[in-house]
Structure prediction request, 160 residues.
Amino acid sequence: MIAAMNRESFEQFWPAFKDIILQQETYAFDAEMTCEESYQLWCASPIRSYGWFEENVVLGTYYLKANAMGPSNHICNCGYMVKPDAGGQGIARKLCEHSQLIARQLGFEAMQFNSVVSTNERAIRLWKTLGFDIIGTIPKAYRHPRLGYVDSFIMHKLLG
Prediction:
């Protein structure tokens, strides 16, 4: 079930969030971020934040926010995380589909992912199946802990 995230549900998800940012393989977040800083980034600052709940356990989450201000505020941006032990269950797909529905309801006309690490092949395949295109490559944009500098992609989808 998808429902809005709050402080309590984020704190429940925090160990998985922390583990993902410590790995430094998919998110350009500071590995030293605190739970409070992460909550502010993921839940308080964005327009919306939702989680995938099973038996009151948060298995995945996403945020939705405007990608820019003013004349570009019709394009939104989202970030998604799924607990590593819950991967492969279709949760990221369901969260992305839900985020597109909510984005349309909020009046957004497009969705853009600003920095999808090129080595995150699983996510790239999923986003492509959901209609996103790679519209740009940022050379050596990400310092991968095992592979060194790798490219990041800008991915985009019109929601109309």
